[in-house]
C-alpha cells in the first residue's frame, strides 16, 4: 500500500510552485510529518511534510520542476526501504564505479520549471579537485524567480567545472564533470597538482582564482584576453581589472550590445586603474532583476501621486505611556504604535472607500473589508504580510498578530496565503530613521501609507512656540481611482485620529 504526497494549497490566486529541494531520496525511511521537500513560489517557501511514515518509494516531481496545486510529488510505501531506489525524478541511479577505478559523471543543469529555459550560475560551493559526497551541494543557479541548488549525483571528486560563476546555462546543459568511485577519491590529492599544471597550460579558467573567474564573467572577458601574473600563469583578480580597464579594439566594441543612448559617453569611459581596484561590481541576481522590473511596472501602470501631512504624536505617546504596563500584563504583548496607525487607517478607509479599492479592467472593485498589509524588513528583503479583517480586530489582536507575523517573516516561515489579498498597506520607514519618503504602491492596491521618524520640532500653538513630537505622513495613491480631495481627506482623518485617539473609540 502506498501514500501519495501532493502539493498543498499555496495561497490565494497562487496556482503553481517550483520544487526547490528534496531532503530525502527514494529508498529513505521517513517519519510522519518529517519534511520531504521544499517548494518555492514568487514570494515564499513552502515545506511539504510526510503524510505518513514509511519509505519514499518514488519522486515524481524532480528539483526544478514546476507543479500545480494538488499535483503528485512522490509516493510513500509502507514498511522497510526499497531495495533498488531511483535517483531524482525517477531516473535510475548511476551504476557504482569499480572499486579500483573511477568513472566520469556529468553534472547537468536540472529542469528549471515551465517556460524557464536558462539560468545564471550564481555560486560554486566546491572547486575543481575537491572531494564531494553524494547529494552535497555543488553550486547554485538563479532564474527569474527562484534559486536552484545542484547536488552531486554521486560521491567522488569534482574533476572539472565547465560553467564558471556568472555564466548563463541552458536547461539540460552540462555544468561540470564529477569523477566517482574509490579510485578517484584515493588519487585526488596526488592528481590535483598535475591537473592544475596541465589545465593552467591549456588556458582553462577553472583553475584561475575564483574571484578572477567571477570578475571575468561580469566583465564579459575570456581567459585568452587576460594575462595572468600568478604562479604558472594563474589569472588573479588584479589581472582582470587591468584587462577590463584597457582600451578595446574597435572590432570588439562594434560587436558589443548597444547601450542606451541616455548614458553619456563619459559614464562608459574606462576608469583609472587605482579607482578600479577599489570598486566592486556585482551582477544583479535574476530575482533582483525581476523585482526591479515589477516595481517599474507598478510606476508605469498606475497614475501614482503622493500627498503629505504631519501628525503630533503627543496624544498617542501619552496614552501608550499610561496604559502600556497594564496592556502588556493583560494581553501578553507590548502596546506599540502600529495598532494605533492600523486603527486610524481602517477608520479613514471607511470614510474614503476609494482608497480601499482596486481597478479590474474597466471596473472599480470596492472592498467592504480591510485586509491591512504591514511591510516588514527581513534579511532577504521586504515582505508584506496581511492582517485579514483588521477593521474588526481589537488593539490587542492587532499587536499580537503583527508580532507573530514579524517573527515568522524574519524566520522565512510566512506562507503565500499570509501575503495575499491585501487591500491597503502601511510601511514604516521610521524604524530605519527615514524622515520623509514617497512609498511606492503595492499593485493592485490604490493606496499605501508611509510612516516616518518621530522628531521633536518647534510648533506654534495658541501663539506660543512649543516642542512637540512630530511625524511626517505620506500617502501614495492611484490617481486613476482616488481624487486629490479623497487622498487629502483620508490623510487628515488619520491625522485627527492619531492626535486625539479618543475619536477612534467614539467613531468620529
From TrEMBL:
Keywords, sorted A to Z: Acyltransferase, Lipoyl, Transferase, Tricarboxylic acid cycle
Region called Disordered, residue ranges: 185-211, 242-279
Domain Lipoyl-binding: 2-77, 100-179
Xref: InterPro entries: 2-oxoacid_dehydrogenase, 2-oxoacid_DH_actylTfrase, Biotin_lipoyl, CAT-like_dom_sf, E3-bd_dom_sf, PSBD, Single_hybrid_motif, SucB
Catalytic activity: N(6)-[(R)-dihydrolipoyl]-L-lysyl-[protein] + succinyl-CoA = N(6)-[(R)-S(8)-succinyldihydrolipoyl]-L-lysyl-[protein] + CoA
SUPFAM superfamilies: CoA-dependent acyltransferases, Peripheral subunit-binding domain of 2-oxo acid dehydrogenase complex, Single hybrid motif
E.C. number(s) listed in UniProt: 2.3.1.61
Pathway in which the depicted protein is active: Amino-acid degradation; L-lysine degradation via saccharopine pathway; glutaryl-CoA from L-lysine: step 6/6
Biased composition (Basic and acidic residues): 202-211
GO MF annotations in UniProt: dihydrolipoyllysine-residue succinyltransferase activity
Domain Peripheral subunit-binding (PSBD): 207-244
UniProt KW Transferase keyword: yes
Cofactor: (R)-lipoate
Coiled-coil intervals, chain numbering: none
Ranges of Low complexity composition bias in the record: 242-273
Entry-linked CDD domains: lipoyl_domain
Record's function text: E2 component of the 2-oxoglutarate dehydrogenase (OGDH) complex which catalyzes the second step in the conversion of 2-oxoglutarate to succinyl-CoA and CO(2).
Recorded family membership: Belongs to the 2-oxoacid dehydrogenase family.
Entry protein name: Dihydrolipoyllysine-residue succinyltransferase component of 2-oxoglutarate dehydrogenase complex
Organism of derivation: Rhodovulum sulfidophilum
Gene giving rise to this polypeptide: odhB
Amino acid at each position: 500500500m502506498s501514500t501519495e504526497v501532493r502539493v498543498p494549497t499555496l495561497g490565494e490566486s497562487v496556482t503553481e510552485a517550483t520544487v526547490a529541494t528534496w531532503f530525502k531520496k527514494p529508498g529513505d525511511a521517513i517519519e510522519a510529518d518529517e519534511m520531504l521537500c521544499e517548494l518555492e513560489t514568487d514570494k515564499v517557501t513552502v515545506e511539504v511534510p510526510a503524510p505518513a511514515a514509511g519509505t519514499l518509494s518514488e519522486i515524481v516531481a524532480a528539483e526544478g520542476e514546476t507543479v500545480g496545486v494538488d499535483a503528485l510529488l512522490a509516493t510513500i510505501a509502507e514498511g522497510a526501504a526499497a531495495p533498488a531506489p531511483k535517483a531524482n525524478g525517477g531516473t535510475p541511479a548511476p551504476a557504482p564505479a569499480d572499486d579500483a577505478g573511477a568513472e566520469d559523471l556529468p553534472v547537468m543543469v536540472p529542469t528549471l520549471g515551465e517556460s524557464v529555459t536558462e539560468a545564471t550560475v550564481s555560486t560554486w560551493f566546491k572547486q575543481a579537485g575537491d572531494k564531494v559526497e553524494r547529494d552535497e551541494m555543488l553550486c547554485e543557479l538563479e532564474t527569474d524567480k527562484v534559486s536552484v541548488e545542484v547536488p552531486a549525483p554521486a560521491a567522488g571528486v569534482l574533476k572539472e567545472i565547465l560553467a564558471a560563476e556568472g555564466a548563463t546555462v541552458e536547461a539540460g546543459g552540462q555544468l561540470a564533470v564529477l569523477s566517482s568511485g574509490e579510485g578517484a577519491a584515493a588519487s585526488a590529492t596526488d592528481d590535483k597538482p598535475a591537473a592544475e599544471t596541465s589545465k593552467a597550460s591549456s588556458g582553462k579558467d577553472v583553475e584561475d582564482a575564483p574571484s578572477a573567474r567571477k570578475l571575468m564573467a561580469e566583465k564579459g572577458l575570456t581567459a585568452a584576453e587576460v594575462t595572468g601574473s600568478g604562479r604558472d600563469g594563474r589569472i588573479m583578480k588584479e589581472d582582470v581589472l587591468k584587462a577590463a580597464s584597457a582600451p578595446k579594439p574597435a572590432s570588439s566594441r562594434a560587436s558589443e550590445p548597444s547601450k542606451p543612448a541616455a548614458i553619456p559617453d563619459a559614464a562608459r569611459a574606462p576608469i583609472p586603474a587605482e579607482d578600479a581596484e577599489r570598486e566592486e561590481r556585482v551582477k544583479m541576481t535574476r530575482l533582483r532583476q525581476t523585482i526591479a522590473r515589477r516595481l517599474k511596472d507598478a510606476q508605469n501602470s498606475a497614475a501614482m501621486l503622493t500627498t503629505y501631512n504631519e501628525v503630533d504624536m503627543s496624544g498617542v505617546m501619552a496614552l501608550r505611556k499610561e496604559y502600556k504596563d497594564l496592556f502588556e500584563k493583560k494581553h501578553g504583548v507590548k502596546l506599540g504604535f502600529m495598532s494605533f496607525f492600523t486603527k486610524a487607517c481602517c477608520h479613514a478607509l471607511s470614510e474614503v472607500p476609494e482608497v480601499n479599492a482596486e481597478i479590474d479592467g474597466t471596473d472599480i472593485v470596492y472592498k467592504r473589508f480591510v485586509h491591512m498589509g504591514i511591510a516588514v524588513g527581513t534579511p532577504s528583503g521586504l515582505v508584506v504580510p496581511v492582517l485579514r479583517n483588521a477593521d474588526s480586530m481589537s488593539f490587542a489582536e492587532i499587536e499580537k498578530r503583527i508580532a507573530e507575523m514579524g517573527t515568522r517573516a524574519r524566520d522565512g516561515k510566512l506562507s503565500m496565503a499570509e501575503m495575499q489579498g491585501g487591500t491597503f498597506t502601511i510601511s514604516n520607514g521610521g524604524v530605519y530613521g527615514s524622515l520623509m519618503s514617497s512609498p511606492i504602491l503595492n499593485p493592485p492596491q490604490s493606496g499605501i501609507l508611509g510612516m516616518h521618524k518621530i522628531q521633536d520640532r518647534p510648533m506654534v500653538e495658541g501663539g506660543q512656540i512649543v516642542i512637540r513630537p512630530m511625524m511626517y505622513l505620506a500617502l501614495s495613491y492611484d490617481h486613476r481611482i482616488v481624487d486629490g480631495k479623497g487622498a487629502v481627506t483620508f490623510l487628515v482623518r488619520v491625522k485627527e485620529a492619531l492626535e486625539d485617539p479618543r475619536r477612534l473609540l467614539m467613531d468620529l
